[in-house]
């Protein structure tokens, strides 16, 4: 029986998805379709272009030791906004990180491919702040069911879709493209199970990383932003009936957050452990 996998957001915590994929690959239980939002969109996209779980694991280890390669702070914008704030003028600060380095890195990993070139059913999500609708980038519109407040699109570089989907509000600047202002897809759909089902995959294994995300006593401004969004996403996740066949919820350390790149390997190990524990059930549900 074929099945798809839907991956939630989580920033650096998204490394847990790689652990899940490693366990599935090891067991010979690889999904035939994928959907993802935010960090989940990156793992989904890399899997769709043919990267193995083992190769993704190597990338996680590399980034855990050299995360600065993806950090491009908008220092001029930050300082300028502070000055304007004290002058009582409007500020135009939209995020701490530009996201350009991340997009270039992802473009290299995906060879600049367009999502329409993918053979595997792939759905990567973002949210347009102008229209307030979910933008679902899909490799093909064949067999796709229309949904309320969802716009399906097929023409975009995979790396650009990943970058847009990963634009965590206030942390990454929105991605401006085709007259849209795109941010993290998790704002409207934490775990895009419903979108994968609408794209034609009835059997979905979901991975949710939104749980166990406590507020630190010494929280900084980034912690406040990410935790506020996490609370919103958690409520949304409970409200929406996603329809997954099975949900994996890795227990991640409380010390992890969107930007704790140094703990990515720990998150990856937690994802692997969670998937291994559920593997008998996964095989029972998704094996003909």
Structure description:
The protein is α/β, with parallel strands linked by helices and 288 residues long. It has a single domain, classed as Cytosolic phospholipase A2 catalytic domain, CATH 3.40.1090. The strands form two sheets. Strands 1, 2, 4, 5, 6, 8, 9, 10 and 11 form a nine-stranded mixed sheet that branches. α1 links the parallel β1 and β2. α1 packs antiparallel against α3, α1 crosses α9 and α2 runs antiparallel to α6. One of its GO terms (molecular function) is hydrolase activity. InterPro entries: Acyl_Trfase/lysoPLipase, NTE, PNPLA_dom. Keywords: Hydrolase, Lipid degradation, Lipid metabolism.
The CATH superfamily name is Cytosolic phospholipase A2 catalytic domain
Low-confidence stretches: 73-89
What is the count of distinct domains? 1
Oligomeric state of the chains present here: single chain
Kindly provide the name of the CATH class. Alpha Beta
Note the gap between the termini: 5 Å
Topology as a string of helices (H) and strands (E):
EHEHHHEHEEEHEEEHEHEH
Cα gyration radius (Å): 18 Å
DSSP helix count? 9
- Please describe the biggest sheet, giving its number of strands, its sense, and whether it closes into a barrel: 9 strands, mixed
CATH topology group: Cytosolic phospholipase A2 catalytic domain
Shape: globular
Global structural class: alpha/beta
Helical percentage: 25-40%
Q: Per CATH, which architecture?
A: 3-Layer(aba) Sandwich
Q: What's the mean pLDDT score?
A: 84
